[in-house]
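task queued by scheduler; priority normal; single chain, no ligands, no partner chains; default sampling; output format set to structure tokens
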Amino acid sequence: MQLIQQHPVGHPSWVELATTDVAAARPFYQQFFGWTVKQISPDGPGAYFMWQHQGQEIAGMYTLAGPLLEKGLSPHWMVYFAVDDADAFAAKVKLLQGGVLFPPFDVGQSGRSVWCVDRHGAMFCGWQARQHCGMKVKGGPSTLNWVELATPELDVSRHFYTTILPWTAEERTPDERGIPTRYIEWMVDGVPIGGALQMTPEWKGIPPHWVPYFQVEDAAASVALAEALGGKAPYGCFGMDGVGQLALIQDPQGVAFMIIQPE
């Protein structure tokens, strides 16, 4: 496990669970990942929690309510990317015909945040760190391993994200690693930090989105545990050559995330 002091610009730096039922989400994730939780603001609609792994902050959680619900948001995991200037980042998103859900705002002395959507409506955030770099650990079970975009137009998304972030994109052909559709890997200075896949007709009814992957020791055992805790694994485990065993998990509120048991 690697301790982190600062996330390079463009790297995933934080993930955050927005849920309509914090009381139900807490025991699920505590038992599923072995995380502990720390409340950092008073009870109420604005209450905020930090998930911790081995004493280190790894993700956030809050109650989805008020203006967020009014904007039509449903429970979800949000992915944040490290940026050096949240205001300049918001301007680039708009220039590339994306949207800014909430203009840049300060989160105390922790940093400056901006909530965005890409050209297809997939939500993501930019985080300009000050006193809080974001997740403090990575590498190993129960930590963030990967982030992935599902998009209906891969080439449009490639241009959008490689313009607003210091990314390059390397395409993987559908026959590589058993990938059933077009796929690209996002790279920062030659380091892969995430991916994007082309949505096919089978995805009908599912909106474009970002999803986090969390590492586990045993994907099959994690699927069984999720179901025992009231979650779902609608597709079970599946393997990908050169990658490992994967599964889509839905928590008891229906929020989806991926798990990966690396090869």
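post-processing summary
- DSSP finds five helices and 18 strands in the chain.
- Residues 92 and 187 are 19 Å apart (CA to CA).
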